[in-house]
Amino acid sequence: MALAEWASIRTRRQQLLASTEAMQSLDSSLTDLQRSELALYRQAVRDVPQDSGDPYKVEWPELPYFLK
């Protein structure tokens, strides 16, 4: 059961990363500060599986304010 939950978490992680992928380009309209905040958010998303030993207690990082 936990293996299926981890697979679901990895899928969500990939979806969150994909949804912000295009914003990383230098020709996006983000400011340098926003680009930095986006990089921190994406790193936190990538770290999610390593941050929790329990797939039922995963805490996802909050989207940066400018993406809400």
Task: Sum up the structure in keywords.
single chain, mainly alpha, elongated, Phage_tail_APC, Phage tail assembly chaperone-like domain-containing protein
Describe the structure.
The chain has about 70 residues and is mainly α. It has one domain. Helix content is about 55%, strand content about 0%. It has two helices and no strands. α1 (about 1-20) packs antiparallel against α2. The longest helix has 20 residues, at about 30-50.
Compile the SSE list and pairings.
Elements: H1 2-20, H2 32-51
Helix pairs in contact: 1-2
Protein name: Phage tail assembly chaperone-like domain-containing protein
Pfam family, one: Phage_tail_APC
InterPro entries: Phage_tail_APC (IPR031893)
Report the structural category. Answer: mainly alpha
- Average pLDDT confidence is 89
What is the N-to-C succession of helices and strands? HH
The total count of helices amounts to 2
Number of strands: 0
Q: Give the count of structural domains.
A: 1
What best-fitting shape do the alpha-carbon axes yield?
elongated
For the largest beta-sheet, the strand count, sense and barrel status come to:
none
Return Rg in Å: 13 Å
Helix content: 55-70%
Low-confidence stretches: none
What is the strand content?
A: under 5%
Distance between the termini: 33 Å
* Assembly form of the protein: single chain
Organism: Pseudomonas lactis
Domain Phage tail assembly chaperone-like: 7-64
Pfam families: Phage_tail_APC
Protein name: Phage tail assembly chaperone-like domain-containing protein
